[in-house]
Amino acid sequence: MNKNKYHTLEKFYIYPQYIGIYKFEKHLHDIEGILNTNPEDFSTLNPKTYYFFKMPLCGHPQKTSLVELRKRIVTNDPLKLYCRICKWLINSGITYEQLAKLYSVNNERPLSDVHYRHHPVIFTCPDCGDDTPYKEMRWVLDHLKKGGSFKKHCKGKCNSVGMKYSALVPLWDKKRNKISIFAVPANDDNLYHRKWYFLCAVCDKPIDTPTTVYNAAINIPRCIRHKIKSGTSFAEMAIFFSFARCLSAFPYIELNHRYKYYRHREFDIFVNVTCHDSHHFFAVEVDGIHHRNTADKDEEKNQYATKNMIHLERVRDVELANVNLENFNNLIQRKSRDKTELNQIITELLNRFLRWLSTLNMEKEQFQELKAAIIEEIQHVDVIRDEKAIWKQLNHLGKKLLKDDPKLKPIFEQLREDVRRELGDFITVTEQDIKRPFVCSKCGNTWEQYVKAVVANFRNSKRKATGCPTCANKNKELNAKLKKKHLL
Fold first, then answer.
1. Which domain of life is it from (predicted)?
2. Quick one: DSSP state of residue 438?
3. For residue 257, what is the enclosing H or E element?
4. Domain identity same for 146 and 176
């Protein structure tokens, strides 16, 4: 080779004996190829043989000849003065540095040898550090536009169930799922089809029934004792609470709330008892005031229960006292909507359930164990004491809370402090099944009244009366004195 003819190109030549000073990275550049191809003496190069040179505009190694390199420099075509990878990236808006950070060290071939379409590649997410394999490099140019983030395309932790639904992280049962929530890809199968185990959001205990991630995300995971659907009356919740408290520990008993037996038709509370490899069913319907117009449907449900050997009990609202159901006697008629009345109703239901169990021909030891649990529950039924625990079963109240209405703040602040603290998250503006204790902010007098009545009085009063009977009587006496004085 005539060294003087190509001496200006020597600065682009990569000397293998000094490979360390170039700071080429093994997963990005073919270092082994450079060492095996380039001779140590520049003067020994054949002008038409291909060697590794640093490309003039990017400085990355590219295999070319002295003749070809000089021709490129003379023509001054920018596209020909970049390495093959940088030339790809010119129109994509992605810099070589950005691509180099994404290109994983676990790739089989260096970045400089990757073909645009034919070679599978692995990218390392800069956010989570996990590798994501793709079939071809073309994906980078098509999807990682200028200013784009790799995070939404990552198939590692960034695209895991744990990252997508961070609220489920503390509820994930790693012991039974046998995998970390951050190791489960958030794909269609894992989100909507495959079922996983979760912990109860209320008591933090394992839930026996697995569910999909999607269902867990929209319906907070709760065990059978703490899972009540929205739109449920307090009476229904209280009954379910007592049944769950005494029955949930027995593996041969399955307890369901709003059990669907045919399309949209359901039983409010449904108990499935397995005995001698056969199933026996006990159901409870809590009929609210809207059942005044559903007598036909109620009778159909009664007939369905009889036909399918389901023992059905009905708890009827006070307004349904005059609404009769033909050929059905398993009724408990409410005399009021007062919460304290539920103690007697729940006790009666548990006694009826116990009598029904005695007809199933269960093993004596099994029956006695179950009987003891039910009797203990009967002795401890107290819906007022357990009110907060009963409300906690419900995912969403679906009604406006007293504490959330700024106009009713004076009423909420007059609730006795312990009630406000313990039950403030559950008391609604329309509550009328228990009288709450109020403390007058003006005179300090204590009285009890339904929240709905106090709210209605406050809204209808021009002077925004807070409902205190002592203050109301004083106002009456004052008005009487003024009226008498005016008449005189």
1. Bacteria
2. E
3. strand 253-262
4. no
**H or E element that contains 38:** none
CB 284 within 8 A of CB 353: no
User: Six-digit token pair at 263?
Assistant: 């399309």
**Does 58 score more than 60 pLDDT?**
yes
- Is 70 exceeded by the pLDDT of residue 6? yes
Q: How many helices (H) and strands (E) does the chain have?
A: 19, 13
pTM higher than 0.90: no
The model's pLDDT over 361-378, given as tens digits with 9 standing for 90+, comes to 899 999 999 999 999 999
**Rounded alpha-carbon distances, angstroms, from residue 133 to 175, 180, 462:** 28, 20, 71
Domain residue limits at 321: 231-391
Does the pLDDT value for residue 138 go beyond 80?
no
CA 57 to chain CA mean position, Å: 51
Q: How many residues does the chain have?
A: 488
CA angle 16, 21, 22 (to 5 degrees): 75
| Residue ending a domain, choose from 391, 426, 458 | 391
Return the structure tokens found at 383: 């819906």
User: For all residues of the chain together, what is the average pLDDT?
Assistant: 83
| 331: phi then psi, degrees, rounded to nearest 5 | -115, 145
Distance CA 108, CA 250 (A): 56
Is residue 379 packed enough to be buried (19+ CB in 10 Å), middle (13-18) or exposed (0-12)?
exposed
What's the chain's Rg over C-alpha atoms? 38
In terms of DSSP H, where are the helices of 3-126?
3-6, 31-37, 66-75, 84-89, 96-102
Residue 295's closest CA among 318, 259, 322? 322
Show the tokens assigned to 385.
């004491």
What is the DSSP secondary-structure string of 115-157? -TTTS-EEEE-TTT--EEEES-THHHHHH--TT--SGGG--SG
Question: Which residues does 12 contact at the CB level (< 8 Å), separation at least 6?
Answer: 53, 54, 55, 56, 69
The number of domains in the chain is: 4
Residue with tokens 């590692």, as numbered in its chain: 156
Same domain? 205 vs 337? no
Average pLDDT of the residues in 226-249: 82
Distance CA 281, CA 244 (A): 15
Give the residue among 95, 145, 139 at the shortest CA–CA distance from 119. Answer: 139
Q: Are residues 368 and 253 in the same domain?
A: yes
